[in-house]
Amino acid sequence: MDHFPLSWGRPRNEAVDLYSTYPVHERQRHGQQHDAFTQGVQHTQQPIVTGTSVLALKYKDGIMMAADCLASYGSLARFKDISRLHAVGQYTLIGAGGDMSDFQYLQHLLNDLMIDEYTSDDGHKLGPDEIYHYLSQVMYGRRTKMNPLWNSLLVGGFKDGQSFMGYVDLLGTTYTASTLASGYGAYIAQPLLRKAVEGRETTLTEEEARVIIQECMKVLFYRDARSLNKYQIATVTERGVQINDAISSETEWAFAEKIRGYGAQTQ
Amino acid sequence: MRISTIEGGHSSDRGDRSLSLCFRSTRVHLRGLHTRTPVERCTDEHHLHFSLFSAYTQPNRCLAMALMQPLLADAQLRPVGHQFNPYSENGGTILAIAGADFAVIAGDTRQTEGYSIQTRYAPKVFKLTDRAVLAVNGFQADCSEFVKRVLQRIEWYRHAHSKQMPLKAIARMIQTMLYGKRFFPYYTYNILGGIEEDGTGAVYSFDPVGSYEREACRAAGAASSLIQPFLDNQIYFKNQTPAPGAAPFVPGNLPIDVVLPIVIDSFTSATERHIEVGDGLEIFIVLAKGRDASQLSSLNATEIPAADPTGERVFVVRRDLKKD
């Protein structure tokens, strides 16, 4: 006998388990398989509130990462005091471009993961490598469901004397390198970073690294129309993760007045 | 829901409506139905509504309507913008050549997306067992997922049978795993190389949905169209004729000191002519039981220690390719 009044008087079908052949916990759903609400659920087809580039490089003592504080709504500079750098535990830092609400979801996911790890109290701590693989599985799993988290993420960290830097994006594509740049920075900043860093990963000092990152952020602010001259620089070293307060670069726009040929001028 | 979709496509503006009607009849023509449909005959909203309703109550009259439904839904339901594409292509090239008692499996280490170099070192060639090496190329996320699963299945096999999985079994397993995702394929080109149970060198090549065959050589990936014809000539002796009186050519019997320069030259040439190839070269060499390795010393080959020494040996050679 079916105990669900809602399924009484309806035609029999595969989805209805009239004689309770399944244990209660895996009972088939009764009634219509697809209700109006699930049909209305939409997958992310495009990002809405977005962050632009994130940069990262390796240096002597660890890794350095930078991202500006802007979350855009299309071409509107909507939120100008957003932190796109996020510490995960004491060894790892992630920086996100793309959809900011998806990034916040990931922050919650990672927070839950770290709580689970903490409560297991097994003497192991998740390092940057583990976080990177975790994120890549989450991102690849979501792309396979055709419901991606619309982000490109940089993962950086320092644990057991080893620095780590990796990239994960909405397709689940991953790679590691000694300089990383997501979004527009992949075109504008990556060549500058490679020129300054490749081959010098173990000798570059923190001051030198900071100068390189600041220069790249300035160039990005000049050229990327979705960027903001207010950015955070973070480091991960033996001393742990340090996300600094937002800073600005000195910029010079006087030359712009003399430029003719594009822009708003009429003559 | 479909009815409301079509209604939703109509504003009160008359011009707007005739435009979309025109659009519909075009679609019907595309389908090869050259009769005027009920939709075309309607001129005002009320009649339109009636005829759409009749599409559901009188299906025989309105076959054309039913045919149009998916197209209409396509054109009007979906928001402007493109659908999410779950695939990408990450460049690079792989290649493998079999000898009588060895196999060579190689790949470059550049990873690209579009015109950008993502990294200069992303390995594409993986040691699976002490006598099998797999090269994967295509969409990086699918590649690493696939290799991860292959390695796991190989480990399970070892636990279940207390021996390493034989090469031909790995090949068939890869076929099954690829075909298992026939309708949402792994976008990966696989080349498996190694030593068979009878001690011969072997190369198996696969397409993304699992078709496979054993061959003497194969190139895949971004520069496959540059390298494969070269291998056809050098390994399969295509368009070559033996000297008068000389023995006929037999593919798959070249000595290793001929094969390795062919591999290296293939990659340096592909690097010159293909922008997605370069940065580094990894060559894996699998030698059959008892075969001497002295010919590898000049290449600075390092041996990868066997997990379960049975005689076969795996070496790897790492070289630079141009980074520009």
UniProtKB/TrEMBL annotation, chain A:
<keyword id="KW-0963">Cytoplasm</keyword>
<dbReference type="InterPro" id="IPR001353">
    <property type="entry name" value="Proteasome_sua/b"/>
</dbReference>
<dbReference type="GO" id="GO:0051603">
    <property type="term" value="P:proteolysis involved in protein catabolic process"/>
</dbReference>
<dbReference type="InterPro" id="IPR016295">
    <property type="entry name" value="Proteasome_beta4"/>
</dbReference>
<dbReference type="GO" id="GO:0019774">
    <property type="term" value="C:proteasome core complex, beta-subunit complex"/>
</dbReference>
<dbReference type="Pfam" id="PF00227">
    <property type="entry name" value="Proteasome"/>
</dbReference>
<comment type="similarity">
    <text>Belongs to the peptidase T1B family.</text>
</comment>
<dbReference type="InterPro" id="IPR016050">
    <property type="entry name" value="Proteasome_bsu_CS"/>
</dbReference>
<protein>
    <recommendedName>
        <fullName>Proteasome subunit beta</fullName>
    </recommendedName>
</protein>
<keyword id="KW-0647">Proteasome</keyword>
<dbReference type="GO" id="GO:0005634">
    <property type="term" value="C:nucleus"/>
</dbReference>
<dbReference type="InterPro" id="IPR029055">
    <property type="entry name" value="Ntn_hydrolases_N"/>
</dbReference>
<comment type="function">
    <text>Non-catalytic component of the proteasome.</text>
</comment>
<dbReference type="InterPro" id="IPR023333">
    <property type="entry name" value="Proteasome_suB-type"/>
</dbReference>
<keyword id="KW-0539">Nucleus</keyword>
<dbReference type="GO" id="GO:0005737">
    <property type="term" value="C:cytoplasm"/>
</dbReference>
From TrEMBL, chain B:
<dbReference type="InterPro" id="IPR023333">
    <property type="entry name" value="Proteasome_suB-type"/>
</dbReference>
<dbReference type="GO" id="GO:0005737">
    <property type="term" value="C:cytoplasm"/>
</dbReference>
<dbReference type="InterPro" id="IPR001353">
    <property type="entry name" value="Proteasome_sua/b"/>
</dbReference>
<keyword id="KW-0539">Nucleus</keyword>
<dbReference type="GO" id="GO:0019774">
    <property type="term" value="C:proteasome core complex, beta-subunit complex"/>
</dbReference>
<keyword id="KW-0647">Proteasome</keyword>
<protein>
    <submittedName>
        <fullName>N-terminal nucleophile aminohydrolase</fullName>
    </submittedName>
</protein>
<dbReference type="GO" id="GO:0005634">
    <property type="term" value="C:nucleus"/>
</dbReference>
<dbReference type="GO" id="GO:0016787">
    <property type="term" value="F:hydrolase activity"/>
</dbReference>
<dbReference type="GO" id="GO:0051603">
    <property type="term" value="P:proteolysis involved in protein catabolic process"/>
</dbReference>
<dbReference type="Pfam" id="PF00227">
    <property type="entry name" value="Proteasome"/>
</dbReference>
<keyword id="KW-0963">Cytoplasm</keyword>
<dbReference type="InterPro" id="IPR016050">
    <property type="entry name" value="Proteasome_bsu_CS"/>
</dbReference>
<dbReference type="InterPro" id="IPR029055">
    <property type="entry name" value="Ntn_hydrolases_N"/>
</dbReference>
<keyword id="KW-0378">Hydrolase</keyword>
<comment type="subunit">
    <text>The 26S proteasome consists of a 20S proteasome core and two 19S regulatory subunits. The 20S proteasome core is composed of 28 subunits that are arranged in four stacked rings, resulting in a barrel-shaped structure. The two end rings are each formed by seven alpha subunits, and the two central rings are each formed by seven beta subunits. The catalytic chamber with the active sites is on the inside of the barrel.</text>
</comment>
